[in-house]
Design goal:
Distance between the termini of chain A: 54 Å
Structural class of chain A: alpha+beta
Number of helices of chain A: 8
CATH superfamily of chain B: RNA polymerase II/Efflux pump adaptor protein, barrel-sandwich hybrid domain
CATH class of chain B: Mainly Beta
CATH superfamily of the largest domain in chain A: Probable tRNA modification gtpase trme, domain 1
Strand order of the largest sheet of chain B: 1-2-3-9-8-5
Order of helices and strands of chain A: EHEEHEEHEEEHEEHEEEEHEHHEEEEEE
Structural class of chain B: alpha+beta
Number of domains of chain B: 1
Strand order of the largest sheet of chain A: 11-12-13-14-10-4-15
Oligomer: heterodimer
Order of helices and strands of chain B: HEEEHEEEEEHHEHH
Distance between the termini of chain B: 25 Å
CATH class of the largest domain in chain A: Alpha Beta
Number of helices of chain B: 6
Number of strands of chain A: 21
């Protein structure tokens, strides 16, 4: 067996003790010691698809951007048109380099007229906070890294709404049941400020809850208690990865990076060249992708042997040069067959194209598939008109 | 003496049960736990001639792949077809029903060179 390193001491989540008590196994994630699974990552995956899972995402970075020109500063700093967001609206957007690569993918929440929360990946916390601070210079706004003050708990799955509706002591101006997809609301839970957003990273309906770290454990335990009759179980990072892969969602460091253009991964629409002024990365983004740039595709295979990050992709069962590389892959717990995302030559990116993944010396047949691999069947909440 | 204590171990997290000139090999509970739920197992063909340190089996979870190495030079006698059909046996009973293969030791010298660990030495390794 290959040796699996023990997680180092790492930064502990404010919910660490609850995870230990629940019997979690831990993994190092961007310097944090986070639960990888509680008992079974397959059960946790299925719970999110059929009922609900409770995730501790306190490692994520929260950066507050506030002030009269906060919206304008974010229009300049990010790829999206952030100043057009309604109060209580969220948007997935990118922090680009001047060369058009991706420093991080973030979600921006407009919680108040002049207050925006930017949620970045744990591993990019300092890069994201630093870039936002530098890019905000000259705007009447302040940028504050609140990551250490805030915990993030996600309730994801088709029963997430019922679970939040059974949580006692929640006082929000918009009832949770009428909160639409990619909308958020700031309210109070048992006297403490809470921000609830209908967002997630699993391909299911669900909510993300931001609260001060001091109250995180009480919220976690309350959710587990009211959620248990609805099938809610705690879920770790192992199933989070297979859930997002099935949903075709990119993971920074795999499908996104400094040398990857958004247009290569189907995120060209998040770079708003029309309707807003200058922003970091605009000039580079106006240049069309070079002919040779590879595109991200889905790959589906038969059997049970999965292609994994870094494995070469070929267009023939033997010989030849690689035509691409897998960025993420696993045996899909929901679909029962291997799935992967990969960058491949543009000429081979059409759905149905037969390709081969070199799985440790054996080429496994795979077919190019449109993303996502999995789409939930429950009706999606209406997006903003 | 407990059953666990009779097993020998490799530093690559395999357990070995010695029965005359034949070894039964699997992955340890520690390794199975680190890997997560096993969803695919590839076991070697009976009759295959293998050398120590060569990858002879693969154990995959949704998260990662574990490669299993031959602990000695020798010949594969039998593979566990039950784990190929029911990979979860590796998590449920790693040192019992979750065995992977048996191997006939090629020569006494190859066994002497295997450097197998006893239970205490292996426990010290995983306490890390």
């Amino acid at each position: 067996m290959t040796n699996h390193p023990e997680p180092g001491p790492g930064i502990r989540s404010p919910l660490h003790d609850a995870h230990v008590a629940a019997g979690a196994s831990f993994t190092d994630f961007a310097g944090w010691q986070m639960p990888v699974r509680y008992s079974s990552e397959l059960d946790e995956h299925r719970a999110v698809r059929t009922a609900a899972g409770l995730f501790d995402l306190s490692h994520m970075a929260e950066i507050l951007v506030a002030g009269p020109e906060a919206g304008a500063a974010l229009d300049f700093a990010l790829s999206g048109h952030i100043s057009t967001l309604d109060i209580g609206q969220a948007r997935y957007t990118l922090l680009l380099t001047p060369e058009g690569g991706v420093i991080d993918d973030v979600i921006v929440y407009r919680t108040h007229e002049n207050r925006f929360g930017v949620v970045a990946n744990a591993g990019n916390r300092f890069e994201a906070a630093g870039a936002l601070s530098v890019r905000a210079v000259g705007f009447d706004t302040t940028v504050v890294d609140e990551s250490e003050a805030l915990a993030l708990i996600a309730v994801q799955g088709p029963r997430a709404e019922e679970i939040l509706l059974s949580l006692d002591g929640l006082d929000v101006p918009v009832p949770v049941g009428s909160l639409r997809n990619y909308r958020c609301v700031t309210g109070v839970w048992r006297g403490n400020e809470i921000m609830i957003a209908r967002t997630g990273y699993t391909g299911e309906d669900g909510f993300e809850l931001y609260i001060r770290v001091a109250f995180a454990q009480e919220l976690w335990e309350s959710l587990l208690e009211v959620g248990a009759p609805h099938g809610l179980i705690p879920a770790g990072l192992a199933c989070r990865d297979t859930l997002r892969l099935e949903a075709g969602m990119p993971l920074y460091g795999h499908e996104l990076g400094l040398d990857i253009r958004p247009q290569q991964v189907g995120l060209g629409r998040t770079v708003r060249l029309e309707g807003k002024g200058d922003f970091v990365g605009r000039q580079a983004s106006e240049v069309p992708l070079p002919e040779g740039a590879r595109l991200l595709v889905g790959l589906a295979s038969e059997g049970r042997r999965a292609g994994r990050a870094g494995y070469a992709v070929f267009d023939s069962p033997e010989g030849g040069e690689p035509v691409g590389e897998v960025t993420s892959g696993a045996l899909s717990p929901t679909l029962g067959h291997p799935i992967a995302m990969a960058f491949v030559d543009r000429a081979l990116s059409e759905p149905g194209t037969p390709l081969y993944i070199d799985v440790r010396g054996t080429r496994i047949a795979a077919s190019v598939t449109s993303l996502p691999f999995y789409k939930r069947s429950t009706p999606q909440r209406k997006v903003a008109p | 003496m407990s059953e666990q204590a009779e097993l020998k171990y490799t530093a690559e997290h395999e357990w070995v049960r010695i029965d005359g000139d034949t070894l039964t090999v699997g992955i340890t509970a520690y390794a199975a736990d680190k890997l997560g739920e096993v969803v695919f197992v590839d076991v070697p063909e009976a009759g295959a001639s293998v050398s120590k340190g060569k990858v002879v089996a693969e154990v995959e979870s949704t998260k990662s792949v574990g490669e299993v190495y031959a602990p000695v030079d020798g010949t594969i006698v039998e593979s566990n077809s039950a784990v190929a059909d029911n990979p979860e046996l590796i998590n449920e009973d790693p040192t019992g029903a979750g065995w992977l293969f048996t191997i006939r030791i090629g020569s006494p010298e190859s066994f002497d060179a295997s450097g197998l660990l006893d239970a205490d030495a292996y426990a010290a390794l995983t306490r890390g």
